[in-house]
Amino acid sequence: MSTTAETLSSDAPSPEAQEAASETDARGRLLAADGTPLKLSLARALRRQKLRALALVAPLLFFVLVSFIFPIGGMLLRSVQNDIVPDTLPRTIAALEDWDPASDVLPGEPAFAALYTDLVVATERKTHTRLGSRLNYAAGGYSSMLRKSGRLVADFHLDWFEKKVSRDWDEPEVFTALFGEGEGPAAQALPKTAAAYAAWAEEMREQGEDPAKEEPWDLVYAALVEDLRAGGPALTGYSGPQAELIAETLAKIGEYDPPSYTDAFIKSDKDWGDPDNWAIIHQLSGRYTSSYFLAAADLERNTDGEIVDKPEEESIYIFLFERTLFLSLTITFSCLLLGYPIAWLLSNLPLRISNLLLILVLLPFWTSLLVRTSAWIVLLQQEGVINDLLVSVGILSDSGRLQMMFNQTGTIIAMTHILLPFMILPLYSVMKTIKPNYLRAAKSLGATDWTAFWRVYFPNTVPGIGAGAILVFILSIGYYITPELVGGTEGVFISNRIAYHISSSLNWGLAAALASLLLIVVLALYWVYDRIVGIDNVKLG
Amino acid sequence: MALPVYATTGQKIWYYAFRVICAAIFFFLIFPIITIIPLSFNAEDFFTFTPGMLAFESDAYSFKHYDDFFNNEDWQLALSNSLKIAPMATFLSVSLGTLAAIGLSQSHVPFRGAIMAILISPMIVPLIISATGMFFFYSQPFGFSDLSIQGTYWAIVLAHAVLGTPFVIITVTATLVGFDKSLTRAAANMGADPVTTFFRVQMPLIVPGVISGGLFAFITSFDEVVVVLFLGSAQQKTLPWQMFTGLREQISPTILAVATILVTVSVLLLLTVELLRRRSERLRGMSPG
Amino acid sequence: MKITHLLGATAIALVPLATLAEDLPPCDNCADTMTIVSWGGAYSSSQLKAYHEPYSKLTGVSIVNDESSNEAVAKLRAMAEAGNVSWDVVDVVASDAIRLCDEGLAREMDFNEELAAAPDGTSAEEDFGDLLVSDCFIPQIVYSTTFGYRTDVAEWNGREPDDICDVFDLENFPGKRSLEKRPINNMEWALLCDGVAKEDVYDVLETEEGQDRAFAKLDTIKDSVIWWSAGAETPQRLADGEAVMGSTYNGRLFSLIEEQGQPVKMLWDAQVFDLDGWIIPAGLPEDRLNRALHYIMFATDTQRLADQAKFISYGPARASSAPLVGKHADLGIDMAPHMPTDPANAKNTFLYNYEWWADYRDDLDAKFQAWIAK
């Protein structure tokens, strides 16, 4: 940080400070008018100036951070978030902790029991199919597994109870009579049931339902079965409300084994019997996951947890990224090819004429993107202006009309047109500064036209080429609208796939992962651009 | 760069060939935009030239697609939405952007590079990424669903304002680069306080930059479709939204009528910017203009 | 957005008001505006004429139309995440309705309580029958995805396709085909024409080999296919002659043939039925819910569903509406023979398996897009 007066701008404590500078204190330091040492005074002024600059920038900076940077950050976070699995299956995941997915054996009954509990809650809260959609991103089939099992678990114990033990338990009144009063004799006789019922009633009240009118979730019946089978003196000697029903049920309950969760799940959908399906749940049990990024790079984890390539017929994203890069490069190159002569012409014509011609460059620049895209649709389609022209001139037969749209050709032509001004303008501003003397000097030294251009002029334009090319490349790599309208299937970019996953397939995590990868490429180029050109030197019009 | 008298035949050929190539490229730039203008007066519902049009028969031309634009309530809603959204977004971009540009052009701004990079980023980040980010954010800002402005007028205005600010910063900073600091010093010397100095000395000089930045911001909002597609609801549809869905479904020549109107508006805006640029350069004594 | 405030407007009442007013109970504690989401275009305008206008006239409610059905699931999910649902009634296809219902984003209906019974007293549940594919979904129409072909293709030497497999027959029926850019329907048709029996299609498609088989069949015509993603594209291409045959929704082909008089015919063989209808978003405040239910009760009764068929050639979802289907409002032609459900058209139909696709959509879609791209 320099404190010499000349680097300070107009706002430095100029007249007074300079006048005061002639005074010195006892130790020989220069003093300002108010008697403080000049160095200190200048530093203070500098600080004030910095603060003022920051205060001017702050509102916009805050605005951009809050309404732009923050939203993008939040969206990118979705690419690693995986809350739905641990939130929906907390008990199952705990039960799977000791299970070895590579062992190729099915998890034991406790895991199925935990899955039952999780699924009852999920089914009642309607999150189970959402979990199914999430797991489906890893492998097909989960959606129906969870939907079928969701139906099963909703009345799992009740069905068994009604079939084998007693038909009188499905009335809400039974439970209200037993546990409605809170701590009563029933709660001592059936402690687990009471706890399960209380938890359930709490949830009902939260949802705005009256527990006295609703049939309890199957979890309450599961607790009841457990309590009844455990027996105990409080239960056998029970004499509170519904004593008759309890005694009757108690007498019968011992005759039958409660159903096995494992069998029931496999019966509801045979896929639960496949250890591979459990391995995927085990893999995706964390709150954060790399699976979306793996998918975005055409990779996946096999059941042993190793990262492997996706089968070739499902690999698409690397291919799409490559195509996006290829098309962007082609577009950048065609812009350079068309832009260079124009920029050269503009910079070598008298200002009056070149300003007029510049309007021809700026007009497309100022014309709506959609207007230009629709113009190209009008020109390029099979029944369009260019084909009509070629047919009427006789170059093409009516049946041999060219397919120039809904393919890469369409995307390249339309986007070259749209981005061409972004190439011409930086080239022009660089070429304007190259003195014609250089070329003359080269020629007078005996260089041919070509050598003079290639060895002298061209190297001087390289900064302009760099600026224009990077700008065009950055803009084209993230394009969405034009490829969507004229690109068909071959001419679309990765952006179109991101949009598809956001609004159609709803695989938001994958969309976020693809967007992150795209953003990394763009930011890297942005950084390069800043190094070469400097963001301050972007010129518009 | 006229052809010197001593040019060889090869040089002559190249000289004219080069002119022809340049003319072809200018043709490529302008032709598509010009083509749609006559087509928008097509009396038929096609978007190719009918034989009648080529023979310049008067009944092959009509204003019916313009009629459709001015009488169809979908298009009118889109137009009025565009006209409500763009000025407000422009106002926000211009006021915040000008302040920031003035701040950034002071001589000592800490973290200038980083701040500049952040402020310009809305222009660089692919729109699809910005749009999806805002789509999630505006439905639940900072996790508070009560603050949701998803699908409202303000969601689009705020989004467009952010997208427009880089243009304001770039143009205003550019006018400030050539700004002669001795002018403010002189004003201060004559006893003007900083506020007076700003409004009486600095402001008149940067006004052209502010206006041209504002025009850029306006056109950004007026032409923007990706963010509107994601954030907007049908009630907030704008002209580009209507054009985009129209183009995806099927081209109706009404789109070409709208396009022609927009081209006219662009030409007017372009001329305004050009005049401002000349005025600014004259004021700053940088070029004869 | 069209605000249709029809009090005092000169809309044509489709049925005498007296009978309506009797049938329609008053609405207690109901909001007086509502937002209805649908597809836009001709379909929305048929709903406007058959449902919205009479309902507004009867009740004075102003209806705001939103045309976001295409993104309904994504937007409803984002709205629900935010806890701020601004839609009251949403028109979606059955598969979307199932998804919304599964995720708890749509409200479960009590069909017999909340929908009108048929005029003869048949309960709503019985009247809709098998078409009630989800607890949240009130079907409106049966539509089908089927093929149209040009009748003036010289290379065909007067032959006309009459079998779905003619789509795969480039020898007898050369020319471009316009197919939808998604696996649904295309995979099924490919397998059917590769000799798989109709009832086995999904079992075969579930296996790796079955999928390869379908792709191999599609490969035989891949070079002659132009892919579409919006329903208007096929009719446009058929009209332009850019394609000689192509799949799309039957209503679009109807307007191409009957309203625009293009030389195109329908190939009804192996048409795939699908349903479109209403859902009410979950968690609406009481007054808006009451209004939505009141509207649904009106708009899905027997007469209203039959009325819609006057404007667009989709079959009403209620059995009791079928006999009431009359003539086209403008063209004056009988609509019944143009319904996908008409016995002459429905000789060989295919049912789209919603549950199966819910499971395999993501997987197959990735494969399909990769296949198209290469």
UniProtKB/TrEMBL annotation, chain A:
Belongs to the binding-protein-dependent transport system permease family. CysTW subfamily. Residues 1-26 are annotated as: Disordered. InterPro entries: MetI-like, MetI-like_sf. Its main location: membrane. CDD domains: TM_PBP2. The keyword Cytoplasm does not apply. Residues 9-23 have a biased composition (Low complexity). This is ABC transmembrane type-1 domain-containing protein. It comes from the Bacteria. The keyword Electron transport does not apply. It holds the Pfam family BPD_transp_1. Keywords: Cell membrane, Membrane, Transmembrane, Transmembrane helix, Transport. It is a multi-pass membrane protein. It comes from Paralimibaculum aggregatum. Residues 321-529 form the ABC transmembrane type-1 domain. The chain crosses the membrane at residues 53-77, 325-346, 358-379, 412-431, 452-481, 508-529. It is found in: Cell membrane.
Automatic annotation (TrEMBL), chain B:
Gene3D superfamilies: MetI-like (1.10.3720.10). It comes from the Bacteria. It is found in: Cell inner membrane; Cell membrane. InterPro entries: MetI-like, MetI-like_sf. Its main location: membrane. The chain crosses the membrane at residues 20-41, 85-104, 116-138, 153-179, 205-231, 251-276. It is a multi-pass membrane protein. Keywords: Cell inner membrane, Cell membrane, Membrane, Transmembrane, Transmembrane helix, Transport. Residues 79-273 form the ABC transmembrane type-1 domain. Belongs to the binding-protein-dependent transport system permease family. This is ABC transporter permease. It comes from Paralimibaculum aggregatum. The lineage of its organism: Bacteria, Pseudomonadati, Pseudomonadota, Alphaproteobacteria, Rhodobacterales.
Automatic annotation (TrEMBL), chain C:
It comes from Paralimibaculum aggregatum. This is ABC transporter substrate-binding protein. Residues 1-21 form the signal peptide. Keywords: Signal. Coiled coil: none annotated. The keyword Signal applies. The lineage of its organism: Bacteria, Pseudomonadati, Pseudomonadota, Alphaproteobacteria, Rhodobacterales. The keyword Signal applies. It comes from the Bacteria.
